[in-house]
């Protein structure tokens, strides 16, 4: 449980320490990639809580979603349509759903634990 | 074991996400200090920048001025050089007036035994040419005959019965032959050599007397008046 949080903190620290800056015109892609990654992460947590977690699905979903979101944004830029909004919408909705499911599962677990 | 692997994947994923978030954060939060200047401050800043700009413009103008000065100087010097060369060539070709030490020969009719001048006989072109050759041999730099400059392309010939030098008739005696040498020493030498030369006797055969004057310090010889026509010369490719 604590290891993923540690990983997150380590990632943030590394990112801040390396002082990498991407050009502002690419920050759109990065933001949508972050969204996709978060979506996958929460999806993975939910799957684990529901005991349907699959490692391959998780890892492939992680990278595939990031690539898909970035390419969608790229396509949108070149077509003149804000296609990344579609990705943002999709991922945002999924993110909320996932978090809601996680919350419910945790709630039921907590209440069942409390009843015991 | 399985849980550890799961945790590992989650950790890696989470660290990647953290990394991306950090980068995004750094990228987005680029302007750390917000611009809180009001209109007046902005105005002042703008004025400062404008001053800087005008200073820079002035500098640029100065540098450009210097550049054009240099350029024009270079052009000028080129022109000067060309002019100098032209002058040198003109002197060499005999286009310009020259002055310097030399001697003056006067050609006049010879007296006969009775002390009278014999009637004017004409000056033979071949004799004149020989005289010029001898003068050149003895170190003459510039020669004029009766005020007519002798240059490389000068023609001396008789047309009809009149000897002409570059179209100028030599029909009234006496006339002067001016010779300029390098220096007065050379002039002295030239004088001696002319005095002992046969040419004077040759002139006497034609009833002409060559009066050889003392070397002078400053003799003026006019430049060649006509244009020099070059027919059989081309610049080398």
From TrEMBL, chain A:
<protein>
    <submittedName>
        <fullName>Small basic family protein</fullName>
    </submittedName>
</protein>
<keyword id="KW-0812">Transmembrane</keyword>
<feature type="transmembrane region" description="Helical">
    <location>
        <begin position="57"/>
        <end position="77"/>
    </location>
</feature>
<dbReference type="InterPro" id="IPR009709">
    <property type="entry name" value="DUF1290"/>
</dbReference>
<keyword id="KW-0472">Membrane</keyword>
<keyword id="KW-1133">Transmembrane helix</keyword>
<dbReference type="Pfam" id="PF06947">
    <property type="entry name" value="DUF1290"/>
</dbReference>
<keyword id="KW-1003">Cell membrane</keyword>
<feature type="transmembrane region" description="Helical">
    <location>
        <begin position="83"/>
        <end position="102"/>
    </location>
</feature>
<comment type="similarity">
    <text>Belongs to the sbp family.</text>
</comment>
<feature type="transmembrane region" description="Helical">
    <location>
        <begin position="28"/>
        <end position="45"/>
    </location>
</feature>
């Amino acid at each position: 449980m604590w290891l993923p949080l540690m990983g997150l903190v380590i990632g943030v620290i590394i990112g801040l320490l390396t002082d990498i800056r991407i050009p502002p015109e690419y920050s759109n892609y990065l933001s949508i990639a972050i969204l996709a990654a978060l979506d996958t992460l929460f999806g993975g947590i939910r799957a684990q809580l529901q005991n349907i977690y699959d490692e391959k699905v998780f890892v492939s979903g992680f990278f595939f979603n990031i690539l898909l979101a970035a390419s969608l944004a790229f396509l949108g830029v070149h077509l003149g349509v804000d296609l990344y909004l579609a990705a943002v919408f999709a991922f945002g909705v999924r993110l909320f759903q996932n978090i809601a499911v996680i919350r419910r599962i945790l709630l039921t677990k907590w209440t069942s634990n409390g009843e015991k | 074991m399985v849980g550890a692997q799961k945790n590992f994947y989650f950790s890696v994923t989470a660290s990647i996400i953290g990394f991306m978030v950090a980068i995004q954060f750094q990228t987005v939060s680029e302007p750390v200090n917000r611009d809180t200047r009001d209109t007046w401050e902005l105005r002042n800043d703008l004025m400062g920048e404008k001053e800087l700009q005008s200073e820079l413009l002035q500098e640029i103008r100065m540098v450009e001025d210097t550049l054009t000065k240099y350029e024009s100087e270079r052009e000028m010097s080129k022109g000067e050089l060309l002019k100098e060369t032209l002058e040198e060539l003109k002197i060499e070709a005999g286009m310009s007036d020259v002055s310097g030490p030399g001697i003056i020969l006067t050609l006049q009719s010879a007296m006969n035994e009775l002390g009278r001048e014999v009637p004017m006989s004409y000056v033979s072109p071949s004799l004149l040419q020989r005289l010029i050759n001898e003068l050149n041999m003895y170190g003459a730099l510039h020669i004029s005959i009766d005020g007519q400059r002798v240059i490389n392309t000068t023609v001396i010939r008789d047309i009809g019965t009149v000897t002409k030098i570059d179209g100028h008739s030599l029909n009234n005696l006496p006339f002067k032959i001016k010779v300029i040498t390098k220096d007065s020493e050379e002039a002295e030498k030239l004088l001696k050599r002319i005095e002992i030369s046969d040419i004077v006797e040759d002139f006497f055969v034609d009833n002409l007397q060559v009066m050889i004057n003392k070397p002078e310090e400053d003799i003026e010889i006019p430049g060649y008046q006509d244009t020099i026509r070059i027919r059989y010369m081309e610049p080398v490719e």
